[in-house]
């Protein structure tokens, strides 16, 4: 079964928060509700949501301040955020989007509008994780057909190795820490140890065979996929 998209609802008016949560639950999402910024930050630290519905007016820290903080951190910067607000001024909308929100809903809004905006934002983000192909050196991955080839020969990768390889290839030459890979590949990693990454990297290298050398260990930092790490074929 596919995992339900996790939506973090940050809304201090409990009746509205509850209504949003009920509607999300009925429509195939897994909502978590928090009532202020401190709880929201704790929740995001524990589990990365697939999307955040963020009320603008909160006690203490405002929604825009929270959005700004999340956008500045590598771990949270690409979480889709939809701001909820009672204000419909154009200037406010711009301010919300400037803070890093992907979209904006004005109270009162209908369930249908909320769901449509959530789905649209998730769809816009989706191409990042599926449906594209990427090539690094002679290694090619096609996510739509689920194929990995090296020098034209097909390789068989398990689902986790495939996701891991896809991510490393799309971000080739960059170093990724274990924690970052856990976030990107496993998402909710509360119960997964960083050592798990090492296990899957080892399997990925085995899967890749000759091309396994492209997956480099960067001591004290993490892993990197690099085409220059591979020797040219000998003749
Ligand atoms: Ca509020």
Structure description:
The chain is of the alpha/beta class and 235 residues long. The chain folds into 2 domains: 118 residues, Rossmann fold; 99 residues, Arc Repressor Mutant, subunit A (Orthogonal Bundle), CATH 1.10.10. 39% of the residues lie in helices and 20% in strands. It is built from 8 helices and 11 strands. Strands 2-1-3-4-5 form a 5-stranded parallel beta sheet, sandwiched between helices. A 4-stranded antiparallel beta sheet has the order 6-7-8-9, covered by helices on one side. Helix 3 links the parallel strand 3 and strand 4. Helix 6 crosses helix 7 and helix 6 crosses helix 8. The longest helix is centred in the middle third of the chain and has 15 residues. The structure holds calcium ion.
């Amino acid at each position: 079964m596919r995992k339900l998209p996790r939506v973090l609802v940050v809304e201090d008016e409990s009746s509205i928060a509850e209504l949003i949560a009920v509607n999300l639950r009925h429509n195939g999402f897994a909502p978590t509700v928090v009532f202020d910024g401190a709880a929201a930050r704790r929740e995001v630290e524990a589990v990365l949501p697939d999307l955040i519905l963020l009320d603008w007016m909160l006690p203490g820290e405002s929604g825009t301040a929270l959005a700004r903080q999340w956008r500045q951190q590598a771990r949270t910067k690409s979480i889709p955020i939809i701001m909820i607000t009672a204000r419909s001024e154009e200037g406010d909308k711009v301010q919300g989007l400037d803070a890093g929100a992907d979209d904006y809903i004005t109270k009162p809004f209908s369930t249908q509008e909320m769901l449509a905006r959530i789905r649209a934002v998730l769809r816009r983000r989706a191409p990042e994780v599926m449906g594209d192909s990427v090539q690094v050196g002679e290694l090619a991955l096609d996510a739509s057909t689920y194929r990995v080839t090296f020098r034209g020969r097909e390789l068989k990768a398990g689902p986790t190795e495939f996701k891991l390889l896809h991510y490393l290839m799309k971000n080739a030459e960059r170093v990724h820490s274990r924690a970052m890979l856990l976030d990107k590949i496993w998402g909710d990693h509360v119960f997964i140890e960083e050592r798990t990454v090492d296990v899957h990297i080892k399997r990925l290298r085995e899967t890749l065979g000759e091309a396994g050398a492209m997956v480099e260990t960067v001591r004290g930092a993490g892993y990197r996929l690099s085409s220059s790490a591979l020797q040219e074929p000998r003749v």
